[in-house]
Amino acid sequence: MTFRYPNGKLYTPADQTGKPAKKESNPNYSNRGMTLEEDLNETNRFYCSRNIAIVHKKPTPVQIVQVDYPRRSAAVIKEAYFKQSSTTDYNGVYKGRYLDFEAKETKNPSSFPLQNFHEHQIAHMTQILEQDGICFVILSAFGHIYLLPAGRLIHFWERMKDGGRKSITKAEIEDSGTLIPIGLHPRIDYIKAVEALYF
Amino acid sequence: MTFRYPNGKLYTPADQTGKPAKKESNPNYSNRGMTLEEDLNETNRFYCSRNIAIVHKKPTPVQIVQVDYPRRSAAVIKEAYFKQSSTTDYNGVYKGRYLDFEAKETKNPSSFPLQNFHEHQIAHMTQILEQDGICFVILSAFGHIYLLPAGRLIHFWERMKDGGRKSITKAEIEDSGTLIPIGLHPRIDYIKAVEALYF
């Protein structure tokens, strides 16, 4: 089932972007029947429960138009629309520092399409970096999970704006990104990469 | 119009909690036809535009049950319910540090009722403090706006849990809280109080 924003733009819930990549493309991460969002939620619950970091996914923004209030029962939202988020999906705190990230997935075997991101998200990431926040993207691609610092993503975004390629090559991600260890608890141990890169 | 959560709990949108307090009670802040949420949103837009701090209000969490997708138009959410948020309403970054706060208002002239907060919010604030985040509540009360550090709120909350009073007295708020300057741009300059208290 596909949804669209009022502007006609396709709405892709994170839990539908997480389909396992093709078998041959993914020795480590895919074909586990889990979505990237589920794995990150489990990871964040693990971090919370151990007090390692406190990170939550923001609710999907919805424009509420009409609400019914049946007696003695819950309010029912009868008409509402998906809104474009003006920020990234995840933020929180690690050792007092502000963490902010977006998680995206591609099944493209050779590059990561920049169309996975939006201008307003890049602008938000730029503001977070100016405020000295820790900002990055978690990319599920080529059978691995990478942490790519926001500064590198913005570099590739501006290259596209200047007429360059509309994607980040696999080699560029392997060069600019940090591999995130995959496990059971937590599933996507991105704090290890954060610790190595920012502390 | 009143809404309820599926559990029957009353849903009070922030923009309905911000009615101006009684005239006589408020020389400085009330009777301005503005709500606390509107004033904080304007303040956060001001901070963002000047790159002073990047703080956003989280979307209201909604459980989406049914979505219609009319051809060539936006997806329409036809059935959804309000969910209880598991965190505070506002978070963001200031000078690299994580900021997290909730904003509440009372028209009670002599004390601030603790029923304005929920157990899960207190638990969240406790986790943020353990992670060395900057966590507080912004209280509109007695004609003023106060920043009350989360540690003090948790103290008063535990006093209630131990059978003590169910509110924070005006004197306690004046003693434990910091007055936030009220202005035009920004309207509620809470970063001044954050700077004074935490930096």
TrEMBL record, chains A, B:
Keyword DNA repair: yes
Main subcellular location: cytoplasm
Protein name per its UniProtKB record: Holliday junction resolvase RecU
EC number: 3.1.21.10
Binding site for Mg(2+): 87, 89, 102, 121
Enzyme class: hydrolase
Any one Gene Ontology BP term: chromosome segregation
SUPFAM superfamilies membership: Restriction endonuclease-like
Localization per record: Cytoplasm
Domain of life: Bacteria
Pfam families: RecU
Annotated GO MF terms: crossover junction DNA endonuclease activity; magnesium ion binding; nucleic acid binding
Region (Disordered): 1-33
Function of the protein: Endonuclease that resolves Holliday junction intermediates in genetic recombination. Cleaves mobile four-strand junctions by introducing symmetrical nicks in paired strands. Promotes annealing of linear ssDNA with homologous dsDNA. Required for DNA repair, homologous recombination and chromosome segregation.
UniProt GO cellular component terms: cytoplasm
Site residues, Transition state stabilizer: 104
Species of provenance: Metabacillus mangrovi
Keywords: Cytoplasm, DNA damage, DNA recombination, DNA repair, Endonuclease, Hydrolase, Magnesium, Metal-binding, Nuclease
Catalyzed chemical reaction(s): Endonucleolytic cleavage at a junction such as a reciprocal single-stranded crossover between two homologous DNA duplexes (Holliday junction)
Cofactor note (record): Binds 1 Mg(2+) ion per subunit.
